[in-house]
Amino acid sequence: MSVATPTQTATTTGLERAAVRNWKPPIGLGVFAVIALLLFTVGSRSGVTMFRLSTTSDLIQLPEVAADVAVVTIIVTIVLFGIAALSAWRAYRAAPTPLWLTSVFAALFLVAFLSWAAAGATIPVPGLLVGAVGLSAPLIFGALGGVISERVGVVNVAIEGQLLAGAFASAVVASITQSLVAGLIAAVVAGVLVSFVLATFSIRYVVDQVIVGVVLNVLVIGLTSFLFSKVLSPNSAVLNSPPRFQRLPIPLLGEIPIIGPVLFRQTIIIYIMYVAIAVVWFALFKTKWGLRLRAVGEHPQAADTVGINVNRTRFWNVSLAGAIAGLGGAYFTLGSVGAFNKEMTAGAGFIALAAVIFGRWDPIRATLAALLFGFASNLQSVLSIVGSPVPSQFMLMLPYLVTIFAVAGLVGHVRAPAASGKAYVKS
Amino acid sequence: MKLELRGITKRFGSLVANDHIDLTVEPGEIHCLLGENGAGKSTLMNVLYGLYQADEGQILLGDEVQHFSGPGDAMAAGIGMVHQHFMLIPVFTVAENVMLGHEDTTFGGRLDLAGAREKVREISSRFGFDVDPDALIDDLPVGVQQRVEIIKALSRDAKVLVFDEPTAVLTPQETDELMAIMRQLKQTGTSIVFITHKLREVREVADRITVIRLGKVVGEASPTETNEELASLMVGRAVDLTVDKGPAHPGKAALVVDHLSVVDSRNQIVVNNVSFTVHEGEILAIAGVQGNGQTELVEAIMGLQHKVRGGIELNGHSIRGSVRKTLDAGVGFIPEDRTEDGLVGEFTISENLMLDRYHKPPFVRMGTLQLGYLDEFAREKITEFDIRAQGIGTHVARLSGGNQQKVVLARELSRDLSLFVAAQPTRGLDVGSVEFVHTRIIQTRDAGIPVIVVSTELDEVVALADRIAVMYRGTIVGIVPGDTPREVLGLMMAGEIPRSAESAA
Amino acid sequence: MSEQLPPPVQPEATEAPAKPVADPQHSSRTEQVLRDIVGGNAMISVLAVALALLVGAILIAFTDEDVQAASGYFFSRPGDTLQAIWNAASGAYSALFQGSIYNFRRPGFADGIRPLTETLTFATPLIAAGLGVAVSFRTGLFNIGGRGQMLVAAGAAGYVAFALPMPFPLHLIVAVIAGVAAGALWGGIAGLLKARTGAHEVIVTIMLNYIGLYLISYLLRTQGALQAPGSNNPKSPAMLPSAIFPELFGAKYNLHWGFIFAIAATAWVWYLINRSTLGFQFRAVGENPHAARVAGINVKNVYVYAMLISGGLIGLAGVSQVLGTVTTGFSEGIDAGIGFDAITVALLGRSKPVGVFFAGILFGALKAGGYSMQAAQGVPVDIVLVVQSLIVLFIAAPPLVRAIFRLPIPGTMRRARALNPKAMVTR
User: Fold this and answer.
1) Which residues form a coiled coil (chain B) (predicted)?
2) What is the rounded average pLDDT for all residues in chain B?
């Protein structure tokens, strides 16, 4: 028998909504349009910029593209103002600005800026992008670790420490064993060890997670610098001369114009990274592990009441996050530099943290954010070679500025996992 | 399945929350657990559900002794729980919430969401629920969320179902529906434990009643006993169910709220075009089921809401602007969540007594705190309001709920008031403190101060109000005299406008 | 008919000891002090320092060449190894002591005491910055932006000091004010963004560190800004004598008037936090921002004020660096990691002004001693970072220290609020 019948009160959803206009997107776009206008008129430059699309070793050679700086900047500036106006009109009608519109805006701005900054010179597009992927790699590993850790409810400010510990351990172990695999494993172990401390102090001893993270960074910097000066430097031939990863082009895929050299003529650690991104995304959103992980990060008490051990889940996932970030550390020593150096991560962990937030705690978006940051910093070095009028320091500032814009909500609403940063204490 | 608790004892430090409690629930029985706030009901159920481990005693299910080291074990044994504060993840869908903790997977470790959806639909149709498996919890009204909780428990084949204070968030109609669902579950042989402190509900649905007080079982009762008998069993002495209150002598109109609307952070119109007047020397009670805009209405009056339209005038002057402005206009305020909004737990009693008077003499001179004056003031108030504490330097987090509320009362009532707003002033308090707070509120009225009392407890509304405004979905359904029958109020709380609604407006 | 339970008079019986004692305020304060000592807060601090020094000693011993050499024949002559361990550790810590407090190898008290004045010189910016971080902690904010705030403060004070000649006391005063104001501004940005947009101050201050770094780095490479005229190095010119903190005890010692500023700042912060209405609002917001808002406190303004003051105090640390310690011109490393050290100082001092003062002196001693340890014993100064971060980790987790030393658990375990302000206790 069925006694209960659904009633009006129980089934009608929500209350009436007020139409609210959000002026942030048009204001943001407008500001950038004005910046473009000022940059391209006050700092007006003339000449032709060449975009080289192929490398010399490519099977398929694409022609170089020439862009007249004056024409490109004028047209783009007009279009940018158009997009800002469109956004304002949508805001007036209480409609959001779609993501694709913002993306088009950003892409156009970038093209115009590149032509302007490199006026009269040639920009090697594949080179620019290959460098960007390289600089992004540790950021992406760090950000994936950050996403996992924060999704399970532990703020991970210690990414910097995990990267540095990974870099140190992989350099030493790979030097001694002359084995890259052993180096990678050592990086993973080092990252996990840092995570153990983070997890133990924040979960077991309920110390504020941000504080543990900050202190851990200092600890790892102190420890690695101490050991570097005292042990590594005097014996660098034995302890700090690891082998380096060689490029491993993938047949066919590596021959695709532009994409090939950028994505598929990379080292094995980059390929590991591709796999890591895909696996983390799939596992986080499609599997039992991910469902439980997110539940713990959003509402630990609810997870507890359905029989999930909150603190155990947190402990092991924070450890996993450390393992992934540790791999990013290995990229420094085994992938790019070829030896360990004091404080060689130089704040990459914090940019990774920025990528986590800018990517809204989503592995794919965080990866894209890390790529953006890597691109900005590589753009800086490419432009300083071709002689850009923009001081390199301002290009280097870009990721940090963008992140402040992001957290200030000017780039859309940012929502952290609800229980992130909060210890779970049963009483 | 038969559930039996034998000699359950649970201690927290020196406090004995459960003292050798015995309880038997037969299959297909609705067993009510009745007790005051703080009597130990929730502790007992958390022991049963594996969230706490008992220090002594046994749990038997179908005559087998159980050992629960966590809720997972309890659920596996067939115990389900509908929590007072729903244990649902707001950003997950219904199906995801239902499957969480016992997920089925398909190839590659992929979650079997289709199976979970099917399960939600199947249980929904069995009980006549209308629940969309793909809806986000965040978007669902509380009544539906509670049904998701029930589905969650049933999806794990619960044989014993615990309802912890389930009616607090429901309209009278929804409460009736819930009772019907309980009876339906009972038909299928499910044992039900129903925890509540509302006597009327107990008498309506219970097969048997166990009353606990101060952590001990004090007796069993039958649903046929009167309210007075049940209440005295629960409280431990004869209880007078009315509040001593003389007739009101309303003076001139003091607070005038005119076409007030409030929009929340999700852009929902939570208070919709509300107008009313409060006179000097009267208590206007704002009744309604929780979540119908009362909280936001009060916050708007206090200046705590951002998106507000309409007028709020006190004695002819607008008090819209900032919280500071409102307080300085002489508005006293008891917030509904005292530990969250009313007190700073790590502050001392003295510091809390000056919490909203930090900006001017006599507490502050030349930007400097006057600690000597503050100490003297605090000692005086401790005596006047009978605040039981070691001293004025005690942190309020260490006080009992009743004493904490007295600190808030002492602070607010020792200012010169031109309006007093009390939101849920007795929520979670024991009987003695309830009495104290009610007396103080009536004294404030009798001093000629206009008073607004917001309460979701119909009993409190009826006991205190000179006039009653009932809110439903952001609007005032009607303003009626204080002696309006509760059947009429119940209908109004569900949004029906009675014929006499305008009589006291 | 009312169905609920209201009732005749009967006092509730839930609160155990009901009688107010004769002088409650006084006795509760005395009790508090007693409880702190017996209950172990002071004890924990001492033990944490001891434990951290012990770990440091182990690190020093095991990286020491003599120990390594002796351990090669450990099983034939274990005494040699133990002797070498003792020599390494005691040698290092004796150098640490002689470099930070009193040097016995120097003739006469005036020379012997010089290390102590060095300690106080190192402590000066640590105290100022530590106070800044403490003010933010007490307001429930986490200012990790010390580095950026110090850098912009150093830049502003430095610019006034070398580029705008003025007569002596005035020049110094204007330079100090400029620096403090710049630090306040840099901190205030984070406060303003938090107040207006809800942007998390941890993220914003981290990002502002890098923005400040690149800004100063740019200015130090720009003629007419901070770069020394005619130089190609990213370094400022020397400060004019009229803007330099006078030495406190004559030219023999480096200790300068900045230390007096640090003492004054300590006293002022004590008044601010404990006695002023502004500090009352800070603390109320820090402990419970919701209740503070309901009590009419303008929480948003409080965030801005607190970050202004916090940034200003940290700015004072930057000022002390350029006008007191490194007066010959500064580079972008002028912050010397003090911005991060300040967090550990504030934590060790439990965010109380007097505690911060002594914690600053302790860490100043570690720094001063660390350099002489490096010079005398070849122990890299980075060991100080290790010891410092371990101290904070141990202090943050009293149960860990108790477990290590097998101390009894005090009757009422009170967690240090500053260390875990956001712990979410369920039920």
Assistant:
1) none
2) 88
Omega within 30 of 0 (cis) for the link into B166: no
Q: Do B181 and A294 touch (CB under 8 A)?
A: no
Cα–Cα dist A115/B90, whole Å: 47
With contact defined as 3+ CB pairs under 8 Å, the chains touching B are A, C
Nearest by CB to B130, which of A6, A15, A305? A6
Higher-confidence residue: C129 or A395? C129
Give me the pLDDT at residue C420, please: 40
Interface test with A, best of C211, C226, C401 (most A CBs within 10 A): C211
Domain ranges for chain B: 3-235, 248-330+416-504, 343-413
**Structure ipTM:** 0.84
Residue ranges in chain A whose pLDDT is less than 50: 1-13
Contact C399 A205 (CB under 8 A): yes
Instruction: Go through the domains of chain C in sequence order and give each one's CATH number.
Output: 33-100+379-410 (no CATH), 118-368 (1.10.3470)
| Positions of CATH 1.10.3470 in chain A | 127-410
Model confidence pLDDT, tens digit, residues B299-331: 999 999 988 999 999 999 999 889 999 999 999
Give, in degrees to the nearest 5, the angle at Cα C18 between C14 and C21.
155
* pLDDT for res A6: 35
Chain A CA closest to residue C141 = A210
Q: Model's pTM, two decimal places?
A: 0.86
- Is the Cβ–Cβ distance between A345 and A142 less than 8 Å? no
Of C207, C382, C426, the CB nearest to A222: C382
DSSP annotation of B190: -
Task: Name subunits touching A (3+ CB pairs < 8 A).
Answer: B, C
pLDDT at B442: 94
Q: Do domains B3-235 and B248-330+416-504 have the same CATH topology?
A: yes
Quick check: B272 and A18 CB within 8 A? no
Q: For B248-330+416-504, CATH number?
A: 3.40.50.300
A412: left (phi over 0), alpha (psi -120 to 50) or beta: left
- Whether B483 has its CB under 8 Å from any CB of chain C: the answer is no
Position C322 pLDDT exceeds 60: yes
Q: Where are the beta strands (DSSP E) in B289-399?
A: 307-314, 317-318, 331-334, 364-365, 368-369
pLDDT of residue A360: 86
CATH topology of domain A127-410: ABC transporter involved in vitamin B12 uptake, BtuC (1.10.3470)
Cα gap A347→A326, rounded to integer Å: 15
Phi and psi at B331, nearest 5°, equal -95, 120
Segment A179-208, tens digit of pLDDT: 999 999 999 999 999 999 999 999 988 888
**Segment holding B479, helix H or strand E:** strand B475-481
At B269-288, the pLDDT tens digits run 999 999 999 999 999 999 98
